[in-house]
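Why does this matter for the project? Reviewers at the last site visit asked to see concrete outputs rather than summary tables. In response, this paragraph embeds two records directly. Each consists of the residue sequence and, immediately after it, the corresponding structure tokens. Nothing has been edited or filtered.
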Amino acid sequence: MENLLDHREQNKKLHSALIESIESSFPLTSGNKTLTLSNVKVKSNLNDWDFPKQRQTKLARRSWQVPIYADVTLRNNDTKQIISKKRGMRVGNVPLLTNRFTTIISGNEYQTVNQLRRKSGIYSRVKKNGELESEFNLEKGFNFKMMLDPVTQLFYIILGNRKYRL
């Protein structure tokens, strides 16, 4: 089972999805020339536990990112000759998730709070005051909560800001 709370694993997934997306966009053809990309790689040289370097990045108004390299070939379609070929060309950058699940872009640290979603289903818990609560996360329709009051032994449905006795 995968660990969704491992920032390194999330970075690997992000990088592989990005590489797949870049590779699916090529080859590009314009007129009688074709641009192809091969050997796309993300070179991560940053230590995610290097807090002083992250702080320097923020203070310098830079981004915590890693480069994307690829082998690029420009070919003439009529003669099938290679016009230009470059190995290890930098084609872009990708922000790297820190161990706090944040990205540092132009000196600002961003945290996306609504990126992870729970699957549809019922999630139950015992609140600090002893009440039992179940949250119904529906695939379609309105989500709601159901709780059991331990004193009165009554069930309540909480829909929006309203509380209804069951």
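We now turn to the second protein, recorded in exactly the same manner.
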Amino acid sequence: MDFAREIEDVGAFLTGRGYRVAVIGGLALAAYGSTRMTLDVDLVTDAAAQDALVTFMTSRGFETLHRSAGHSNHLHLDRRHGRVDVVYVRERTADALFSSLRHLPGPGGRTIAVPKPEHLIAMKVQAIKDAPERTWQDLADIAHLLRAPGVDRAEARTHFDRAGLGDKWDELARTT
């Protein structure tokens, strides 16, 4: 999969229409130094972009595998395009996330916009809550993010507490 090209193509479409976009998931973790393998591009954008983005992805030959208010998943039969998963965020969450983006080296040596570690942690905590079978991989990713310079551990903990996963934070805090 040509990660850099997909980020560029989808990013240009979104920003060209006034929507904000950032890279999340495995590519964002890689930008923070994780060596975890990833097979897709994960993006976050404004919730208002969803209809236009789904139409755009379809026009490029992607099949929409799943669509809900907060997510859409798109797969192309041509492996160069691969899979693109999108998270849609609203109002306050979007403003907080997009106002604190960091620009780090990404695929193909291009700079990518990624959320600060605390926001990636919040997404990982929500994923654990929604899909407990992801717990161990997501906790490993969170442990990596907690080692990033300047991470606000108190803010990270609030995400666990809000999700009712304080016990998972306690487990994690003992090892990081």
